[in-house]
Design brief:
This protein is mainly α. It folds into two domains: 72 residues, no CATH class; 222 residues, MetI-like fold (Orthogonal Bundle). Helix content is 76%, strand content 0%. It contains 14 helices and no strands. Helix 5 runs antiparallel to helix 11 and helix 13 runs antiparallel to helix 14. The longest helix is centred in the first third of the chain and has 36 residues. It is globular. It is found in: Cell membrane. It is a multi-pass membrane protein. Its main location: membrane. Belongs to the binding-protein-dependent transport system permease family. It comes from Sedimentimonas flavescens.
Length: 314
């Protein structure tokens, strides 16, 4: 197991290095001058040059890359061109919203998908299976922002059970959780539909294996074979989807955050791109890449825990 973990850590470090080079290169080839954009079209060339020097844009690219990476390793993500505050402070404030939102949405999608996938697999070809598959097809086909607007109209405007938008802060945890409930549901429903279909397919495939037939031949019921044996072996594709979903939910909720007026990480990225705040874009995208790679690393460890064969040396 230790050798397996070391190999995964080496792969994680190599992926981060390649990703940082790619992100820095892509940001640098973006057309336009951030200093000129910040000062406006009528800014004097001397003023633009002074601002470029202040922002460190005149340094050689390799030196800028090393300063950027070294700063991130030490926790210094630079100063936002637009907000004039440290990027780490901006990201920290937005993560207080986006991270709980992603975790709540992931928990909801898992809580909905696991029983739905189990029921569909256990009742394959029957009415319950058809109902679950129809509901999941609808969940995948309908955009999550439509779900969001429907939830606002029904649960916020008509029945007044939840706020329609905004975030009151964590000084009142109950009010904060109520503000995140509708966005989390809107994000969770499509993800739950995908996860349920993947789980159903994995369970049906696993139920056709020889060891399941042997267990059934020894008198084990289909339900017991499903929950005791098939479920664990069907978890590997499910874990893959869960890892991908968390990464998407953390930063892919730009539309939902705009529907509910949530100042989260997705909106920060969108605003930074429109304002050409390159240091914010670079740092936030790199943090998100790190989150994706870290989740993948944890998913690999979960694979090894579920399937001991992966821990064996090749």
């Amino acid at each position: 197991m230790g050798r397996y973990i070391l190999k995964r850590i080496a792969s994680l470090i190599a992926s981060l290095i390649v990703a940082s080079l790619a992100i820095f290169a892509l940001i640098e080839v973006t057309p336009g001058d951030p200093a000129a954009f910040m000062l406006g079209l009528n800014a004097a060339p001397e003023t633009v040059a002074a601002l470029r020097d202040q922002l460190g844009l005149n340094e050689p690219l390799p030196l800028r890359y090393l300063h950027w990476v070294g700063g991130m390793l030490s926790g210094d993500f630079g100063l936002s061109y637009t907000y004039k505050v440290p990027v780490a402070e901006l990201v920290g404030d937005r993560l207080k919203i986006s991270l709980p939102l992603a975790l709540i949405a992931l928990a909801l999608s898992t809580a909905l998908a696991l029983p739905a996938g189990l029921i569909a697999a256990a009742r394959r070809g029957k009415a319950a299976d058809a109902a679950v598959m129809g509901a999941t097809q609808l969940g995948i086909a309908v955009p999550n922002f439509w779900f969001a607007m429907l939830l606002v109209l029904l649960l916020a405007v008509r029945w007044r059970l939840f706020p329609a938008g905004g975030f009151p802060g964590w000084s009142d945890p109950l009010a904060a959780l109520r503000a995140l409930t509708l966005p989390a549901i809107a994000l969770a429903l499509p993800q739950a539909a995908i996860l349920a279909r993947v789980l159903r397919s994995a369970l049906i495939e696993t139920l056709g294996q020889d060891y399941i037939r042997t267990a059934r031949a020894k008198g084990l019921s289909r339900q017991a074979a499903l929950t005791r044996h098939a479920l664990r072996n069907a978890l590997i594709p499910v874990l893959t989807i869960l890892g991908m979903q968390f990464s998407f939910l953390l930063a892919g909720a730009i539309i939902i955050e705009n529907v509910f007026y949530l100042p989260g990480l997705g909106r920060l990225i969108f605003q930074a791109i429109t304002q050409r705040d390159l240091i914010v874009v670079e740092s936030v995208v790199m943090l998100l890449v790190f989150a994706v790679i870290a989740v993948t690393f944890l998913t690999d460890l979960a694979y090894a825990a579920v399937d001991p064969r992966l821990r064996r040396p090749a």
